[in-house]
Specification:
Elements (H helix, E strand, L loop, with lengths): L2 H21 L36 H14 L7 E12 L7 E13 L2 E12 L4 H13 L12 E8 L4 H22 L13 H5 L9 E9 L5 E8 L5 H11 L8 E2 H4 L2
Parallel strand pairs: 3-4, 4-5
Antiparallel strand pairs: 1-2, 2-3, 5-6, 6-7
Helix pairs in contact: 1-2, 3-4
Length: 270
């Protein structure tokens, strides 16, 4: 399956998931609600903490279940197969100890010539996640696309992010964390590199072939807000061959909101 078709399918799946999220209601019997035939059977659970004004709990778990439900039951995606919590092909050392296989939230496959081919890895995030958690998932999305001797590398990464609510400050914080994950990911994840935290990337990591700048990658970002129905979307591509300055400019521009960047599709009328 070519990159254009992959990108089109992922965009449509994301819109379908987002539409189902918008239809969902909370299991909070304090407020009246109208249940329609189209209302998803899955509910947002409620917080029991009396100090929380809005008791609806929105998480990445609901999005992942809806991804699976849509892929399983929609004829539009009959050419896709999927797995959950897919073990990575590469080993990672993201929290100390020995390198080990990690997990991708969701992986998509095509079936051709009597063979399944894993072509997309999806990472799903909710809320204003911690920098370390974002770094871990960005590293997986990038490095699982590295071609190996068996030629069975993943072709595309996909980042799906759900926010319960947001303002301009929330989006800017997420942009900044994503940008830092590409520029400083190694420094955050690897203990031996943390003293290099102020530089764009760690020289030691580059020597060891770990640096994200030296990796070719293609990642699509889809960020949606449950309450306001806003969407931020775009595709980030890197050839793995540019200089430090070129890489930093590419990443900074993409997450800055200027030019060909992560743009607000809601405001664009799309």
């Amino acid at each position: 399956m070519d990159q254009k078709k992959i990108k089109e399918s992922l965009r449509q799946i994301s819109y379908d998931v987002r539409e189902e999220l918008q239809k969902m209601v909370c299991a909070n019997n304090d407020s009246p609600k109208k249940i329609l035939r189209s209302t998803p059977r899955i509910l947002f659970p409620k917080y029991n903490n009396t100090k929380i004004k809005d008791k609806t709990r929105v998480s990445e778990q609901e999005a992942r279940i809806l991804f699976c439900d849509i892929l399983q039951n929609s004829d539009k995606y009959k050419d896709w197969f999927f797995s959950i919590e897919t073990p990575t092909k590469n080993k990672y050392q993201q929290s100390g100890g020995n390198p080990s296989s990690a997990r991708s939230d969701l992986s998509l496959y095509t079936y051709k010539d009597k063979e399944f081919k894993q072509v997309v890895n999806v990472e799903i995030k909710a809320h204003n996640a911690a920098p370390l958690q974002i770094c871990k998932d960005i590293e997986k999305l990038v490095k699982e696309q590295k071609e190996n001797k068996n030629k069975d590398h993943v072709q595309h990464g996909y980042w799906f992010h759900i926010l319960k609510n947001s303002n301009s400050n929330t989006i800017e914080k997420i942009r900044e964390k994503l940008k830092s994950s590409f520029l400083k990911c190694e420094n955050v994840l690897h203990k031996s590199c943390r003293k290099e935290e102020k530089v764009a990337y760690c020289k030691n990591c580059e020597k060891n072939g770990k640096n994200l700048r030296s990796s070719k990658f293609n990642i699509t970002f889809f960020i949606c807000v449950w309450k306001t129905e806003e969407i931020w979307y775009n595709e980030l591509k890197w050839n793995g061959k540019g200089s430090e300055a070129e890489y930093e400019k590419k990443i900074t521009t993409f997450f800055s909101g200027e030019g060909k960047s992560l743009e607000n599709l809601s405001r664009a009328g799309l």
